[in-house]
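Researcher: First entry.
Model:
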Amino acid sequence: MTSYRNSWLSLSKPTRLSDAITLAFPSMVSSAAPAQGTPYPGYFWSAVGAINYQFYIDHRMAKGNKSELIQNPPDFTTVVQAYIIWGLGIYRMWAYTGRRLLSIIPVLFGISLLVFLFLHLIPGDPAVVLLGERARPEQIEALREKLGLNQPLYTQYFLFLRDLVQGNLGNSIFNLLPVRDQLAGRWPATFELALAAMLVAVALGIPLGILAAVRKNSLVDNSSTIFSLIGVSMPVFWLGLILIYLFAVNLQWLPPSGRIGIDAGNNFKTISGFFILDSILQGRSFGEVVAHLILPALTLGTIPLAILTRITRSAMLEVLSQDYVRTARAKGLNERVVIWRHALKNALLPVVTIIGLQFGTLLGGAILTETIFSWPGIGSWIYEGILNRDYPVVQGGVIFVALVFVLVNLIVDLSYALLDPRIQYR
């Protein structure tokens, strides 16, 4: 609703809208509109709802006296205008969301086609991988016929599309298990790791970027620049091995791999697949689960942390040079209020964009991090599928990752209007 403040203020003067309301709601509006300050009938409150009155109080008279507004509520036409503007905002948001969701269909179609073609261009035969190189030709051909690999490529692709539309991702060639079930088992581990990595990046990157912008060209700024360059250029596998050596092998503070220890895992029941949530529900092994998550999250969150630090610094430097920031300082506002309330809010759009892109990327799985820490996520699962020439696993995994990435970016786009009231959905 905040994104329509300007529209609301533009309708604060009397318009011909009151005539339209009178024609549209003849049973609710008398021949003469209520005067300013006239209380509303009970059925009007039930029709419009308290949310619209609160909308009026918060946005139409944000600097006024709320107690006076409650004693002297606005007239009928004014609140109906607020109701219509609020309804138009909800309609535009859902219309925009619907168009974006429909645009996912051609994206997934193109991705499925590319993945299918690339997989079949990779040298190697799944039948040979399963049976071994010493298998007889007739055995290989029989297995290819059983798996449907001897059919033309266009036939295999259309069969895959038919199953995909029905929500069936097929069965793994290697272990014959349904791809959908394997995906459901791997996804929670990837989500936990990606969320923990982004929490590390956001909790450290945004404050460092703000501090570097406020103290431009200082030791803090130069140190954050060096730290960002090191974080971006440092290989993930090398950092992971260093962290394991320091904190797991040498100091023995944290476990080196896995999602939970062997002893704790024997008495641990998987409910949702999210081990942190499951440990809270069971009231056990919470510290064990968090301890196993720390090193992978630090390793995976290093690159997003470095990127967020630089983006936040650049956005804050641009905002801090604006006239309204200088005006706020000239009015004598506290520097913390200027930075955190005025400058940061207007610098968040590029920061939120990077957070969405990085989080969507991490949700696709981190092959190196998952491999080093023996983390059973989507990335390592797809990598194993590529090595085994397991076409259904790779196709299903990539399409799921693409779908998650598109949905995350849609959520980020919808959040823009909450951060900047000037942005509207079209």
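Researcher: Second entry.
Model:
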Amino acid sequence: MRRALRRWEAKPISSMQRRSAWMLWQLPRASQSHRSAVVPPTLRSTCSAGGKIGPARSSWISCTSGMNVPAGCRMNAFPPDLPRSLDSLAAIRDNDWRAFLRLTHMEDHWDRRGWLPGRHSYHWMLSFPDAENVRLLSEHCQARLPSAGFDMVPLDALHLTIGCIGFTDELPEEAALVIAEEATLPCRSLAPFSLTIGPLSGSAGALRFSVAPWSPLLKLHRRIALATNAVIGARCVMDTTRFRPHLSIAYANSSVPVPPLIPTLERLRDSPPAEVAVPTADLVELWREDRVSRFETLKKLQLGGE
């Protein structure tokens, strides 16, 4: 069932309510699936109204040191090393490509711990519904990629993942919406920016476009990570030091040898890149549907908004 975009007015909550909510989210993992049901109605309405829960730890960027971190939401850093420049397309492109050439095989993207059938998650991402040039570039490359061993990303599902908040059976929607409210002002202080999408490269689980520059994306990731940690503390899995921006167009669905892919990818790397504006960041609910990642927007955060 699709839901309308959430909107609410910010309302303060008391220190007692904040403490109650914080204790609730610190319950052992065995109790997490029952949290949504046991949140008091008054607190649920307060949370959905944008109240903050949990103590702020504004100095944190990496939040993965806590207990009970959902493994299926951890982000693997690929390439392992950062490019020599975070703003140079050439440096980012070369770093991505060199890392992919070092692989012998790609792995099944869908074989990830924690992702049980029917499970949903909350994610931050950038989507490009109106970027026809990104769709055309993706379609051009997908048509020339081998179909065996890969699931093509539908053009209406193209996205750039910023990070995962958690699974919906472990974290009530109210908490995700409170995180969005916490991130609103920090994101509004960032100016909208543009990205260059391309050329095509790859990772252990996907064929994907390099994206540049990285600096504005890392700033955005850091602000969202801090907002997420301010609400859910040690359960935050967003780690800016491991964030590697990219846009995937095909996911490996089995073990795929890399060397036979290289000649095709080298030809496609000559395709002109696409330029796209980034005015918002999206909080979404994401799920898997027949080896396709689908998502529904819950909240849009305006960059440099009024």
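Model: Note on the second entry: The mean pLDDT is 80.
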